[in-house]
Design brief:
Layout lengths: L1 E4 L5 H14 L11 H10 L3 E6 L5 E9 L8 E8 L8 H15 L4 E8 L3 H9 L3 E12 L3 E11 L2
Parallel strand pairs: 4-5
Antiparallel strand pairs: 1-2, 2-3, 3-4, 5-7, 6-7
Length: 162
């Protein structure tokens, strides 16, 4: 597995991966009807940096972004988003991306990492983030409109990086 900075040629496959996840409406707050242009802005243009995960043959299996969570005096805390292709789930990619992102965050000068809206029903992700040292610092009651389950709680997770 190789995690490297995003390159423009990666976009068609990344759009395929993230577009499917957004359309499912189960783990990300983006509209299930998000356009490719909107997704490109949100995942590629807006973040400070985006990364691509590929297997040993160069097939793209996942992606993550890193960005300041807030501007100005809150910009020392970063936020990340991670998406793994369906065929690569359960193979350690999310763990590898999270660990890589923490190293990147430190290199970029961030002091902490915050996940703002972790859907409570996404138990695989919640359990992994907690295993990797993130603390649940808040619950947002019925803050996520899950496409299948309706309104469910969302969690705020936080980890100091130093």
């Amino acid at each position: 597995m190789n995690i490297r900075p995003y390159e423009g040629k990666d976009w068609p496959r990344i759009w395929e991966i993230i577009g499917e996840v957004f359309r499912q409406g189960e783990t990300y707050a983006y509209s299930p009807d998000i356009t490719e242009e909107e997704a490109h802005h949100a995942w590629i243009e807006y973040p400070a940096q985006t990364f691509t995960v590929e297997d040993d043959q160069g097939a793209i299996l996942g992606t993550y972004y890193i960005k300041p969570n807030q501007p100005g005096l809150g910009a020392h805390v970063c936020n990340c988003g991670y998406i793994t292709a369906p065929e690569a789930r359960g193979k350690g990619l999310a763990r590898a991306m999270c660990e890589h992102s923490q190293d990147q965050a430190r290199k970029m000068g961030f002091k902490a990492m915050q996940y703002n809206l972790v859907v409570s029903t996404n138990t695989v992700a919640v359990d992994l983030w907690k295993k990797l040292g993130f603390e649940e610092i808040g619950v947002l009651p019925k803050a996520f409109n899950h496409k299948k389950l309706g309104f469910v709680d969302a969690l705020i997770l936080y980890k100091l990086l130093d």
